[in-house]
Structures are given as structure tokens and as C-alpha cells.
């Protein structure tokens, strides 16, 4: 977290971020962009409003900051303005509270200095991290204490000068008088002034002693801090020198690289393997962390573990040897740093530069009445939907977008523990929904036999293939394999229900992930996607339901719950929670976060039964260690709102490539025309392709019925010559039994029963990449 700002503003003074602000009982909490700068907290609806429209500002110098619970806090300036705010997690709330408190203290100090003296005091430069902020506050507090002591010394000095002068005058007068009646009065004055001088001198001595003691104590601490900073600077200089040497080495290797041998056909694997995973939460300043307790009917809550777990060292099957040392690092850094199999990037080969932009989405007006008028008198199955509702990607390409966060599976493949591996697989499951938060456009329905390849072998170490294996019902098969030792396969069929105000999309089928090293076999299903405001209003998407990720080899299980959005809920929108358990039902990890932003996981040290919820269920209380960030969503590219809110990966999916199959989605003409902004031509081409597919389907059905008639006559003949059992055996071996409902046999996939999960799905049978290497696509139909 960026540290709050010093009194003198600089370009890095502001602290920005998303918070949820309570609006009213109708809309509940709404997401707003908050900016903290120069003692003022302002908020906007979006980041784009920062340049022109501010929705509200509160001065922290006169504000009161109060914490309500683990995520909620209130900022009020005495009744005129009150902000009820909510952070996405307790860690985020603590960051905001720290930033607000520091900004308030500095605003009050600046106001006092301007009112009292107006003298310019040198500002202590800010340091990064919350630990630097604490040191900054400590130094400022010490300087204030030393300043007050100096003021005491100045006051005592003035009093000593005053009383010393008076005593000197009295002694001079005493020498000039004769012995008589005035002698007693003069002696009394001298004694009184001597007493005052002694008292002032003692006060001066005490103030000097305090100042000296304070200066000595803090001087030693500052010397140690200075030595630490010097050591750190030396280490940074050594690190910088090593990086410079590596940079020069890579430059020489790059300049001298020509044609690499076959053993280095995938150099990017080494560079990927040596980079630690993004999103390590080890820089948090709390030893323990509270998870946001879920509202009833929640199944569990989490609390910080006892401090003894942080001091205890021990090894377990997940490879975590010390809770105090290793717990402060991410599992990613440990596994990558200690993995001897990670190749070193000795030689580099330039990889393909992929595009980062597509043509902006045209602002075409959609006339629903003209669409309905053109549909009068047509069959329901022949009514074409205009591309205005689409995005220039097919469903096969959207399915391939699940691999955007493939690094999670790379890290999972390196895990020694199946429970830790389960955490990464669960995070990968959640990450596949992060691209849907703004993507309200409908992908193109693939034609039967349409394929899509995603070859990232040089870039990322994996490649995948999708094929539309059925049209009624629509079904797509996906197969991805990585050189890091994992295989992902899935078959998805979509079922939808229109419920008036919203559309529910229920993905059917399962997803499986296999790891070569451990032979762990995971499977799970997708949750329901809901598109709201179908008739009136702005479209928005929500994910809800439950997912069970199962390891069929060990019996481990992760139960994930996607909370549906509610206007009246005080919980964080798009929240996801999960618990990783072993085959005996014992919890080992807890996951929490949102499916559109990030996920964190923490290790469970102890569990117990807690209080009953509103429905009488007894909730489980988990004592956990500090949470680690396991996944964070990549930021959208610049101008994404004009490019259908595509991610960086999605922008490259429809980029034309040489050598792909003629059935590849990149070659689909209507989709290409839409991407180029020629929507009228795209609508005409889309209608032509759909009519061509109907013609091919009718021809295929005609062949199917001709085959059926022949089989009927053959059955009559066999029935007259064979016994009943022989006849049944002949029917089981007939080609009619193995025919797909579409009478279509997939080109690159075959339908098999998985013996491990017990599910039936299309599995890649091979041949595609060999055909691509040979440039032989004779088996591909002409679908475009």
C-alpha cells in the first residue's frame, strides 16, 4: 500500500481506490472511486469523472473516523457530512483507515502550523509500506517531544537570567548599605531571590537531564536505523549490479542468437518459470487477519489463529517448514525459487508480437421494431439475430479465454501437496469468470465442425484446441495441454431460461484438470450466469451458485460459494468463499475474495463449532493464519470500453494467423466483418452461413434416415434367421447406435467414458497439430 502523504504535496501524494458507499435502502452500497489528497477525501462514480465531476468531498481535519466491523467504517464531520463506507476485505479497510488517520493528523498539524507560526518546516519524505509510515510517525512524534523539551529549556533559561539579575542587584545593594534597621529587610529580599534562583536552576538541570536522556535513547535507535538503511542500500546496489550483469548477458545472447537448436524450441518457458507469481500479500503489516464474516445463513466464519501457531516451526505435507519464516512469503516464490527444473533463459528467440487493439465498436442505433418487422411471416428457427447483440468472438474463443490465468495451473503443477494444489485449481476456476463482469455482448454461435486453436507454446508453454461437436444441443469440446505438466479438458453445453427481467444461462458438462507429476485428477462444473435488465435498463451480469472441485485421486474437495448480488445485502458484491478439505472432511485452507477482482487464501490452524445462525445452523469457526493473495485480475487494456471490454488475451484471439485450419473461427467471415465495423455486411453474411448450415443439416438427416431404413430391412432379415440374443448383439454392434444425435462425427475429438470421474465427455484423439505441421487439412469440411 502506498503510504499517506507528507504535508508538502507532491505528485505521489494521493491515495486512490475503490470503496463501496452506502447510498440508500433501494440501491444499497454502490461502488465509487475515492481519492485521498491533501487532507481531503473526494469520491467519483468512475475514474473518468476525476477530471470534471466530483460527487462529494470531506475535510479530514475536522472529521471523525470510526470503525464499525471488519469491512465497514464511517467518516463524519459533525453531522453535515457522513460517509458509510465498506472495503472489499479487512486488509483493504485497514489500509484505508491507516491512510485516513495519517492524512487527518497531517491536516491538523498543517492547519495548526498555519494558524500559529506559518513557519515552513522541512517535511519528512514518505517511505513505502505501512512499516515506513509507522517510522515516519515515530520520528515526527520524537521531534515534537524534543521540541517541547527545547522550549522548556528556553523558558528555564529566561527565568534563570531574570532571577539571576535580580539576585545580583540585591547583593550589590546589600554591599552599599550600612548596618542598621534596613539590614533585615534587605537580607529577606536576598534570601527570597536566592531561593527563586535555586528553584529555577534545579528546573533547568532537570530539563537538561531529560533532554539528554531522550536524545541519547533516540540517538542510539536512529543510529541503528541508519545502519539498517546503509546495509539495505548496499544490498540494493549489489542486486542492481547483478541485474545489470544479467541484462548485458541477455543483450549479448539476443544479439548473437540466430537459429536455436530443437532443444530450445520453447525458450519462454524458462523466463516464465523464473518469475514469481503476481499478487503476493506478504507485505501486509498484520500478523493475523480477520476474514469478512459472511451474513446468515453462512456456513463458517474465520478468526485469527492463536499466536503460538506463528511461533511454532514444523513441516507438513505441503512443504511449509516454518510458520514464521515461510508464512511471510508466497508459496509461488518458494516453489519457483527452489525448483531446480526451472530452465535458465540462456538464449532467447523473438516471439510473435501480438496486437493490442482492435477497431473501436461502432455506435450503431438498434431499431427493435425494424427487427421485429423483418421477422413477420418467418419460421422461428429462421429468424436471424443481428450482430448488434454480439461481440466479434465465437463461443469457442470465449471458452479458450479460460486460459488467461494459466499461470495458476503452472504453479499448481509444482506443488508438493495436493491440498495446496487444490487452492490453485480453485483459484483458476474462479478466475475464468473475471472477464465476464463487463462483457454483455453475446458471442457468435459456432457452426458445427468449427474449430479454434490457441497456440501459445513459445509464449506461455501451452496450446489448446476447441471444436463444436454438436449443434442440437450445442456442445463444444476443449483440450489444452502444457509443457509444465498439466492437461485441461472440458465439454460445455449451454441451457438457458428467460424469466422476464433476466436470462439465466446454465452451463452443463464438466471440466477436468490432470497433472502429470502427481497423477491428481480434478473435476468441477460451472455456476449459473445471470444477465439482468434484458427488457429495460443497462445490462449487467452476475454469477451465482456453488462449485465442488474434487480430487478423485486423494478425495480432497474444495467447496466454493458464489454469493448472488442483492441490493439490500451489506456484503461485498460478487463475493466468493470456499473451504478446502481432505477426504476426512478436515478443513486445511479457506479462500475468500471476489470473482471480478482477486482471491486470497489462508491456512486453517484450528476449527470449532460457533454460534447458531438465523436459520439455526451451527457455523464453523476457523482460526487462520495471515491471508495470502493467490490471484488478482489483470487490468483491462487502455480504451477497453471502446473495444467490447476485451482483455489483453481476448484482443489477440481473432488476430489472423497463417497455417490454421480452414474451419478456424478466425476465418469466419461474418465475425471478421463485425470486427472491422461493417455490421450490415456482417448481418448478411451471418444469415448466409446459418442458411448453409441448415442445408447441410437437412442433407445429413436425409442420409441418416436412409441408413435407418436400410438397418430396418436388415433387422427384419436377421430376425428371421437369428435368435433373439444374436439379434440384440447385432443391434449393439450396428453403426446406428454410435451415431451422434446430429449424425455428426467430430473431427478431432471422440466421446469416451472417463473411468476416474465416471463422466462421459469428448476427449481429444490427436491428429490436429500433426495435420497443421504437414499443412494437410483434407478432413476439414467447407463450413464457411
TrEMBL record:
<dbReference type="InterPro" id="IPR000648">
    <property type="entry name" value="Oxysterol-bd"/>
</dbReference>
<dbReference type="GO" id="GO:0006869">
    <property type="term" value="P:lipid transport"/>
</dbReference>
<dbReference type="InterPro" id="IPR037239">
    <property type="entry name" value="OSBP_sf"/>
</dbReference>
<feature type="region of interest" description="Disordered">
    <location>
        <begin position="114"/>
        <end position="134"/>
    </location>
</feature>
<keyword id="KW-0175">Coiled coil</keyword>
<comment type="similarity">
    <text>Belongs to the OSBP family.</text>
</comment>
<dbReference type="InterPro" id="IPR011993">
    <property type="entry name" value="PH-like_dom_sf"/>
</dbReference>
<keyword id="KW-0446">Lipid-binding</keyword>
<feature type="region of interest" description="Disordered">
    <location>
        <begin position="301"/>
        <end position="355"/>
    </location>
</feature>
<dbReference type="InterPro" id="IPR001849">
    <property type="entry name" value="PH_domain"/>
</dbReference>
<feature type="region of interest" description="Disordered">
    <location>
        <begin position="656"/>
        <end position="686"/>
    </location>
</feature>
<dbReference type="GO" id="GO:0097038">
    <property type="term" value="C:perinuclear endoplasmic reticulum"/>
</dbReference>
<dbReference type="InterPro" id="IPR018494">
    <property type="entry name" value="Oxysterol-bd_CS"/>
</dbReference>
<dbReference type="Pfam" id="PF00169">
    <property type="entry name" value="PH"/>
</dbReference>
<dbReference type="Pfam" id="PF01237">
    <property type="entry name" value="Oxysterol_BP"/>
</dbReference>
<keyword id="KW-0597">Phosphoprotein</keyword>
<feature type="region of interest" description="Disordered">
    <location>
        <begin position="261"/>
        <end position="289"/>
    </location>
</feature>
<feature type="domain" description="PH">
    <location>
        <begin position="12"/>
        <end position="105"/>
    </location>
</feature>
<dbReference type="GO" id="GO:0005886">
    <property type="term" value="C:plasma membrane"/>
</dbReference>
<protein>
    <recommendedName>
        <fullName>Oxysterol-binding protein</fullName>
    </recommendedName>
</protein>
<keyword id="KW-0445">Lipid transport</keyword>
<dbReference type="GO" id="GO:0032934">
    <property type="term" value="F:sterol binding"/>
</dbReference>
<dbReference type="GO" id="GO:0005829">
    <property type="term" value="C:cytosol"/>
</dbReference>
<feature type="coiled-coil region">
    <location>
        <begin position="226"/>
        <end position="253"/>
    </location>
</feature>
<keyword id="KW-0472">Membrane</keyword>
<feature type="compositionally biased region" description="Basic and acidic residues">
    <location>
        <begin position="664"/>
        <end position="686"/>
    </location>
</feature>
<keyword id="KW-0813">Transport</keyword>
Amino acid at each position: 500500500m502506498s503510504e499517506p502523504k507528507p504535508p508538502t504535496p507532491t505528485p505521489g501524494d494521493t491515495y486512490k481506490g475503490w470503496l463501496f458507499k452506502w447510498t440508500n435502502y433501494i440501491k444499497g452500497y454502490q461502488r465509487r472511486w475515492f481519492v485521498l489528497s491533501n487532507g481531503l477525501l473526494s469520491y467519483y462514480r468512475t475514474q473518468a469523472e476525476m477530471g470534471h465531476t466530483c460527487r462529494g468531498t470531506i475535510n479530514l481535519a475536522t472529521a471523525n473516523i470510526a470503525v464499525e466491523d471488519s469491512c465497514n467504517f464511517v467518516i463524519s464531520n459533525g453531522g453535515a457530512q457522513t460517509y458509510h463506507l465498506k472495503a472489499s476485505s479487512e486488509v483493504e479497510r485497514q489500509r484505508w483507515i491507516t491512510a485516513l488517520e495519517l492524512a487527518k493528523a497531517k491536516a491538523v498539524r498543517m492547519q495548526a502550523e498555519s494558524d500559529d507560526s506559518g513557519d515552513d518546516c522541512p517535511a519528512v519524505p514518505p517511505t513505502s509500506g505501512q512499516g515506513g509510515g509507522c517510522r515516519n510517525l515515530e520520528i515526527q512524534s520524537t521531534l515534537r517531544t524534543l521540541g517541547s523539551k527545547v522550549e522548556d529549556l528556553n523558558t528555564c533559561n529566561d527565568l534563570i537570567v531574570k532571577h539571576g539579575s535580580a539576585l545580583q542587584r540585591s547583593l550589590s545593594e546589600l554591599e552599599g548599605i550600612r548596618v542598621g534597621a534596613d539590614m533585615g529587610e534587605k537580607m529577606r529580599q536576598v534570601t527570597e531571590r536566592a531561593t527563586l534562583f535555586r528553584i529555577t536552576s534545579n528546573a533547568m538541570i532537570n530539563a537538561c537531564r531529560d533532554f539528554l536522556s531522550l536524545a541519547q535513547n533516540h540517538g542510539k535507535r536512529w543510529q541503528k536505523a541508519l545502519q539498517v538503511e546503509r546495509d539495505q542500500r548496499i544490498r540494493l546496489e549489489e542486486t542492481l549490479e547483478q541485474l545489470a550483469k544479467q541484462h548485458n548477458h541477455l543483450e549479448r545472447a539476443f544479439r548473437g542468437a540466430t537459429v536455436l537448436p530443437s532443444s530450445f524450441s520453447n525458450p519462454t518457458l524458462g523466463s516464465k518459470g523464473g518469475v514469481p507469481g503476481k499478487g503476493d500479500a506478504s507485505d501486509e503489516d498484520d500478523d493475523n487477519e480477520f476474514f469478512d464474516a459472511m451474513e446468515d445463513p453462512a456456513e463458517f466464519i474465520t478468526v485469527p489463529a492463536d499466536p503460538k501457531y506463528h511461533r511454532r516451526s514444523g513441516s507438513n505435507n505441503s512443504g511449509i517448514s516454518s510458520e514464521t519464516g515461510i508464512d511471510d512469503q508466497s508459496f509461488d516464490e518458494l516453489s519457483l525459487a527452489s525448483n531446480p527444473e526451472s530452465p535458465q533463459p540462456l538464449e532467447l528467440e523473438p516471439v510473435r508480437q501480438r496486437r493490442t487493439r482492435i477497431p473501436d465498436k461502432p455506435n450503431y442505433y438498434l431499431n427493435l421494431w425494424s427487427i421485429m418487422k423483418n421477422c413477420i411471416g418467418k419460421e422461428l428457427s429462421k429468424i436471424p439475430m443481428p450482430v448488434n447483440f454480439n461481440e466479434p468472438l465465437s463461443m469457442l474463443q470465449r471458452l479458450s479465454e479460460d486460459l488467461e490465468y494459466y499461470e495458476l495451473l503452472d504453479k499448481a503443477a509444482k506443488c508438493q501437496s495436493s491440498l495446496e494444489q487444490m487452492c490453485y485449481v480453485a483459484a483458476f476456476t474462479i478466475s475464468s469468470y473475471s472477464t465476464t463482469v463487463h462483457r454483455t455482448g453475446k458471442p457468435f454461435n459456432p457452426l458445427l465442425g468449427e474449430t479454434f486453436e490457441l497456440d501459445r507454446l513459445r509464449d506461455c508453454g501451452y496450446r489448446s484446441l476447441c471444436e463444436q461437436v454438436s449443434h442440437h444441443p450445442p456442445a463444444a469440446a476443449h483440450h489444452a495441454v502444457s509443457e509444465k505438466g498439466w492437461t485441461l479438458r472440458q465439454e460445455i453445453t449451454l441451457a438457458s431460461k428467460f424469466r422476464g427481467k433476466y436470462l439465466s444461462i446454465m452451463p452443463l458438462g464438466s471440466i477436468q484438470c490432470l497433472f502429470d507429476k502427481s497423477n491428481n485428477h480434478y473435476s468441477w462444473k460451472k455456476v449459473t450466469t445471470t444477465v439482468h435488465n434484458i427488457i429495460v435498463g443497462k445490462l449487467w451480469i452476475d454469477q451465482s451458485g456453488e462449485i465442488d472441485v474434487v480430487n478423485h485421486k486423494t478425495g480432497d474437495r474444495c467447496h466454493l460459494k458464489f454469493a448472488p448480488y442483492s441490493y439490500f445485502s451489506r456484503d461485498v458484491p460478487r463475493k466468493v468463499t470456499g473451504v478446502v478439505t481432505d477426504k476426512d472432511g478436515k478443513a486445511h485452507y479457506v479462500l475468500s475474495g471476489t470473482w471480478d477482482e482477486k482471491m486470497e487464501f489462508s491456512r486453517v490452524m484450528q476449527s470449532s463449532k460457533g454460534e447458531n445462525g438465523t436459520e439455526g445452523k451451527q457455523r464453523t469457526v476457523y482460526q487462520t493464519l495471515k491471508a495470502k493473495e493467490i490471484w488478482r485480475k489483470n487490468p483491462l487494456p487502455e480504451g477497453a470500453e471502446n473495444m467490447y471490454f476485451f482483455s489483453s488475451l481476448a484482443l489477440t484471439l481473432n488476430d489472423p494467423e497463417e497455417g490454421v485450419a480452414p474451419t478456424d473461427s478466425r476465418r469466419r467471415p461474418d465475425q471478421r466483418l463485425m470486427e472491422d465495423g461493417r455490421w450490415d455486411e456482417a448481418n448478411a453474411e451471418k444469415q448466409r452461413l446459418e442458411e448453409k448450415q441448415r442445408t447441410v443439416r437437412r442433407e445429413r438427416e436425409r442420409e441418416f434416415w436412409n441408413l435407418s431404413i436400410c438397418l430396418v430391412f436388415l433387422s427384419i432379415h436377421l430376425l428371421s434367421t437369428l435368435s433373439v440374443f444374436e439379434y440384440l448383439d447385432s443391434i449393439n454392434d450396428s453403426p446406428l447406435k454410435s451415431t451422434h444425435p446430429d449424425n455428426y462425427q467430430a473431427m478431432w475429438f471422440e466421446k469416451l467414458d472417463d473411468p476416474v470421474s465416471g463422466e462421459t465427455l469428448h476427449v481429444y484423439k490427436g491428429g490436429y497439430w500433426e495435420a497443421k505441421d504437414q499443412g494437410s487439412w483434407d478432413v476439414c469440411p467447407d463450413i464457411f
